[in-house]
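Appendix B. One record, verbatim.
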Amino acid sequence: MNVVIIEDEALASERLITLLHNAGEPITIARTLESIEEAVTYFSSPHKTDLLFLDIELGDGKSFEIFKKVSVKVPIIFTTAYDQYALQAFKHFSIDYLLKPIEKDELNQAISKWKQISQYPLKIGEQLGKLQEFLSKANQKSKERILVKSGNRLQYKSTDEVAYFYADGKEVYIYTLAENKKFLIDYTLEQLELQLDEKKYFRISRKVIVNVEAIAEIKGLISTRLEIKLTQPCIHELLISRDRSARFKIWLDR
């Protein structure tokens, strides 16, 4: 079985390769690709690929852009950080999905599923189109208000009032613009990432989603990471990892 991996995070790619080699199947890693550009170049030429492991968010954009530029008629298993209802779409429109960090048992189950259905013709293009349409509609319905908890009371804030969202363990808080007040909310960052306007909000790390209106400056660090400074006092260190930096610059320069 020839496998192609499209993943821009080195550690995630290495982990997947290790798990595949230990899966007990005759698997050959044909190529590992890190960007839309590399994927388009690769699939522009004929290659024998039996299965594609595909990350949704790549450094140069969403991986669906690949299918607009080149024909990729390969069964897909998504490797993704998306959560909640969007996963229903991944489950329905692809072979399977795997949440990061990928676990051995889940990977083996996905491969078994692929083996069971690989004997039947797959309408890859049709399925990708449906998934793309689903996610586009999800992103179009940008969240405008959010319920917050203040003591034993509930109130709402406009999402435009939020400087950034911060995950502290299982709890997520908003910090408001100008007032710089902190409120507890009943959402995960994964849920918010799907519902917020992607032109205004960017997830800079596993813990933080930031509003572009709150950014005062970006500083480059020696480690190739970026640090965000806000227009208001901030008790948190807002760092962007190397893996997200390229995507952040593209987002900021729209």
